Every structure is written in C-alpha cells, then in structure tokens.
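Newbie here. two chains, one complex. Structure please?
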Amino acid sequence: MIPISTDTSASAAPAVELRDITKTFPGVVANKDINLVVRRGTVHAVVGENGAGKSTLMKTLYGMHRPDSGTIALDGEQVVLTSPSDAIDRGVGMVHQHFQLADNLTVLENVVLGSEPRRGGRLDFAEATRRILEISDRYGLDVRPDVLVEELGVGERQRVEILKVLYRGARTLILDEPTAVLVPQEVDELFSALRELKSEGLAIIFISHKLDEVLAVADEITVIRRGTTVATVLPSDVTSRKLAELMVGSELPTPETRESTVTDVAELVVSGLTLVDRSGRELLSDVSFTIHRGEVLGIAGVEGNGQAELVETLMGMRRATSGTVVLGADDVSTWSTRRRRESGMAYIAEDRIRHGLLLESPLWENRMLGHQTQAPNSRGPLLDIKGARKDTQRIVEQYDVRTPSIDVLASALSGGNQQKLIVGREMSSEPTLLIASHPTRGVDVGAQAAIWDLLREARAKGLAVLLISADLDELIGLSDSIKVILRGRLVADADPATVTPEQLGSAMTGAEGAA
Amino acid sequence: MSGRFNLKRIGLALAAPVLAILFAMLVTSIVLLAAGNNPLQAYSTMLQQLTKPRIQVNILNSATTYYLSAIAVAIGFRMNLFNIGVDGQYRLAAMLAAAVGGAIAIPAPFHALVVILVAMLVGAFWAGIAGLLKTTRGVSEVISTIMLNFIATGIVAYLLTPGRLAESTQGSNNIGTKPIPESGQVPGLAIIPNAGRNEVYGLIVLAIIIGIAYWFLLNRTRFGFDLRATGSSEPAAIASGVDVKRMVLYAMLLSGAVAGLVGMPQLLGSSYTYSLDFPTGLGFTGIAIALLGRNSPIGIAFGALLWSFLDNSSNSLEFEGVPKQTVLIMQGVIVLSIVIAYELVRRYRIRAVARDVGRQLAATAPEKEAVA
C-alpha cells in the first residue's frame, strides 16, 4: 500500500471514507480490506481490471448490498446503507455503465421518474423543467428537457443520467466506466463537466480501466487488484505504465497488427446503401465500400451517426431503402438475416446482452443462437443437442471461456467471458465476413488481448472484417483501412498507418478531414 | 439448465409451487376459521374424495380438458404472447366441429378425426386473426383476443339456434347441434376400477400426445428454439435470424389449433353435441394452470390435476357446511402466490448460479480469488 492523504483531521471530513471493507459471496472473496478516502471537490479514480472487485465495491457504497465487515462514513458520519434509495437520501448517486433510461420518454420524464414533483396531487412539470434547466446550466450539462431520449446520442444520454442523479440531490457521484461508450471529443466534454461538478464541491468517484483518461481527470487514483486496494497515488507521481503494472502486474497488450494480409478478392461490396426512416430522415446516405478477403475495414464515428443502422442493414435486420449488398458472388440485398448468416456472415453485436445472448439460457443454447439452422446445432428441422453441447465444450476450451460448465446460464459469466463465447461461436461457422461492433467493449485487458488475437488470426486466414469501435486505438491498431462515418455518410478515409486518434476524432466530428 | 438430473435444480423447480400451495392453504385456513369452520376437517373431507372411483374419473376427465387448454396458453406464453382468446377459440371450434360431426357419416376412426381436424382448423383460424392483426397492424394480442372472445360468443349464439346449426333436444328446453353418431364418438377407457359406468375420456390419450409433442417441438426442434429465443429476448432472436413476425403468426396458429382441441374430450367422449350447457370459461382456467405449471408439459399436468381435484372435491365441502366457493378462494390465492413465488425463485436461481460459477472458478484457479 502507498497510503496518501488519509489525514481526516484536515479541514473537512472526507465525502466518502471506506475502512477495511470486506464482502464475500459464498466461496468467493469479492472485496477484502478495502480502504478508500474520497475528498470533497475532487475526482477520485478507482482503477482495476474487470473482475478485480470495482463493481462489488461500488455496489457496497451504493447500498446494493451490505459489506460483511468494515465501515462506511459519509461526510464524517458513519452510516449503514441498506438500499440504493438509502444511498441517494444520503447524497450518493450512481451513473451506471449501461444507461437506465426509458427511450420512449422525454428527458424530463426520465429525470423525474421515481421522484415526480407534485403539487396538489398533480405532476408539476413546470417546476421540474425549471429545476432541470437550472442544474443543466449550473454544471454546463446542456440537456434539453423536452427531447425524447431515443433521439439522443450516447454522450447526451450520459449527461441525462448525471443530471438525473444530481436532480435527486446527490453530492457524491459514482461514475461506472463513463467513457467506455464515448469518443474523444465527448470524453473531453464529460471531463469538463466533471471539473465543473467538482468545483461546486461535489465528490466524484470515477471507475475506469482507461489509464490515460484516469491520469487526465483524476485528482487521486486508487488501484484495486484481486479484490483489495493495492495503492492510492497522485496522477503526477505515476505514468500509465506504472498504473498498468499496479493493476495487472504485467504489460498491457497492444492491438497492432503486423503484416498486411489484404488480398484483391472482394468479399463484401456495398454500393449506394441508403436507409430512410418513416419520418423521411436519412439514417444512411449513399454508403459504398468494399472489403477484401483478409482485410479489416474500420468504421470510425461518433456513436449515433449511423453505425448501428449500417450494421443492422448489412445483417438484414433492417431493409435498405436503396442500394445493394453483395457478399462474395451473391447479391444478398433482399435476403433475410438468417439466409445472410447461413451464407457466411458472422456478427458480434454492439450490445451483447441485448443482441448477442439469451441470458437465462445455458451456454450450449447460446452456442446455437444465430446458428440454429447450421451444423453442428441442427440436422434438418431437428436440433442436434449432442452436437451443440460438444461444440460448446470445444469453444469453451479453445477460446478460454472461464466457466465451470457449459450448463451454467450465460448471465453467470463475466462480460469478457460472455464475449469470448460469442466470438468463438461466430468464428465456428467458418464465416467469410465478420461484422464486429465494439468487440472488446467492457471486457477486461486479458480478454481484450485474446479477442484481438482471434481477429488477427481470422484475418490472416482470409476473413473479411467490418470493425466498428469507439476505442480509436483499437480501430487504428487492427484496421487495414479506416472510413469515417458522419450523419449516415462516409465522409473521409484514413490510413491507419499514419493517422492519430486526434486526427480521427476531429474527422468524426466533421472538422477538417483526416489524412 | 441441461436435461440432466440435478437434485438442487429439481428442488428449486418444486419450491415455488409447493410454497404457493402451502401459502394458499394458510390463507384459506384463515378464511375458514374466520367463518367458524374447521380447516383441518375441510381439507380431510376433500382429500377423502380422492378415494372415490367416481371422483377419480371426474378428476382425470376435467384435467384432460384443462391440460389441453393450458398447453394452448403455454405455447403463447413461451413467446411472450398472451392468448386470452383460448376461451373463444375452443367454444367456436367445438360448436362448428360438433355441427360437422353431426352432419357427416363416415367410418369410425375417420369420423372422429375429421371432427378433431375441423376443431383445430377453426381454433387456429380464430387465433390467427389475432396473429395477423398483431403482425400487420401491431394490435396487441391481449386486446384482440379478448374482443374475439366476445365475437365468438355472439357467433355461437347466432348459429346455435333451431333452423341454423341447432335442433331442440327432446323433453328439455336445451338446444344443441345434431348429435354425433356412434361412428364419430370416442369410447371411454375403463381404467379406474369400480367406477361403474363412469369412464375416463378416450381423448386423455390425445392430451398426453399433445403434451409430448409440445415438449418435443419446444426442446428438440429448430422451430421450438426460435420460439423460445423470441420469448426470452426478442432483439437477440432477431439478430440470430428469427423472423419474429412470422413466429408470432405461427405461435398464434399453433396455440389456436391446440385451443380447438379443448372441447373435444367432452364432445366426443360424453356429450356428443354442442348444446347450451357446454362448459365455458375453460380458456381462463388454462391461463391459471399454465402459470401454475410454468409452461412445462409436466408442470402443467400436475397443475391440471390439482385444479381438477380442487374443482371436483369442492362439492363435498357442502356436506361439512362449508361453502364450496372456499375452493375458488384457494385457487385464486394459489395463482397469485405462484406468480410471485416463481419470480422470487427465478431471481434466486440466477444469483445462485452466478455464485456457483464464482465459487467453482475460484476453486479451480486459487490465484484468481477475486470475482466481482
């Protein structure tokens, strides 16, 4: 341990003080002797690999479960938190990694949901709007109360989440991997909002495993490894390498691919793809590109600029308004999702929980998902359960999915292991084209390296890959060529050998094109 | 989880229904006590009914009907479709099938088969309307099937008049379709000894076959996998290539076809005519039993037998001076508490599995002791 500033006798009591917190689940020590001191008016980063115990710790602080031992003090007062609403009452709010917003409600309705302002038994939306605008102005959140949440981009949604917590009177904010879904410019906006918040005397706990960001925004950093706090350091005293060593005890992997494997055989040719929604808005405008066998084409873009629509149109989940999609020798433009999958398209979905898995089904049934019409999962109209189980076992071993058995529910696996199962599943059908949306989002460093290796291997064997990622290092490191998408159009090309994340970032926001 | 046996798994599966039944008995006991009756006495009177051959036959017969109804509902439930219209589907199907059965004369096994087929087609057609409305116009099947129930009632009343499909029964003011001749009747099974003329519906065999087919379809076919996948996560099913709209239509058609069978054991086994006193409301019983049996073919069988036992033993309560409606309270509380109990057990199970995985991984990899 490198203890720093645990000096509680100084001016004010710390916003949060955790002492010797231990939390065990039967057979598993999730947190052990955790010590954490967060002072008012600071951003305190908590870093650690996925599975290191960050989430358990934050759930403890947010009252989602009670620690077996240890104490929690908020603003110097020792407390026992029995529920999240208890935590909120005491000024602790949490912004979850997966947003908890109802798409079909407005920002205003989402914010007041659960704490509706009433006057004489009726909802007082005028008062709520006034308060939302006040909070929004005060902290520079730039939130419009009357817009439907489904119309918002990811960055805006996140600001709504933050506002929601502030609206409930939070003075201590927990942000769980807030930058995982943001592009560099949005990250900068978030960080300036955080600075605004801390200057107003809020305490911010910032959970992340992106070390550069942590170093940029945090006033103090606590590292968690294997369930316990191993160090608390000042950003000025450490480098990201030093932090990484504290976190994993080994070097961070890099996503760089070595030599080019691009062939001149076109595997996917997309021409003039246009998608217009019911209201006549163009979600995709005249998108054309070619991916060759052995090539990784990266799509860079601020989230919400048509990437999801592009992927869903390519997969046949949405019908293009015009344009063609040619896979190998077949024009698949009018084909169903199933037929496209059967003819060699594999799909790693952006949101594995929603699109990639049946959470309450065992792993072997998840092995079948998306491939239920193909061997070894079925023969004719009948399922081949034996075959599927055997092949699931193979995937688990070959792709290092950490699980005691293939009979456990998918929900029981960690995000990284779920993703490895999905990657293994999608690679098992010998695809010719892989559409990978954010393949390493929310997975730990080890799984990330494994997934990168798998993508590289598949590419070397001639797989064509469409890679969409918000992690620009990943995008630059893995891609053979990069195209930038902005408001449904491909607006710029970039050479991954020369482009920098900063250049890509400005191209993504419509500033002067990159290389 | 898998098809393998696992004591803990079975224990968890049984926990919810057993808890719900115990809770329902507790509530009923309080009601009985409040009304000045002796609950233990009442329960033992009901249990004694189990020993009577005639009651045993009745329990099996009602359970047969309930089972078919609950399977029809369960097919929809597995896909998050709430087919409230089983009631209208089976009444319309039974009435039209009875009319067809009374009008034709063909040799023995085929006569009954034609009646059954007509019933399935009518049921599927009626449910299919709701399916089409949902897939083409986005109308909630809950609304449309409730409406279709009313329309079915109207159609049945309209057609079941003398001069249309009905004729008056001699010596009574009941009216019904022309009786199905012997060639179309399904003989009963004398499998309960000492039951006298009371026989178990021959179509209990059909109910068993439907149960097995339901299990096979869901667990062993691609279609069943698509259906279950759609039920557990529609976005994931779409991404996996399932045509959800088509699945909705197919599921409604299947559910309706099975619903069409609900009236068959009674029609072909004892009444031979669809008359004004043909049982109604079986579709709603099916909803309760599908919930009780958690959409599993075995669970529904137990649920149907329990429900049938409660129904058929309720009359005996009158001898004890206990209103037989007490059983309705019990049934209601069972359904309410079972829904809650299943949800609690489901959540517990997800957590328990996650914990087990953590524990087993920790045991195999001691250096990886921390699991978030």
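Moderator note: Residues 184-199 of chain A form the longest helix (16 residues). Chain A touches chain B through 65 residues (CB under 8 Å). Thread marked as resolved.
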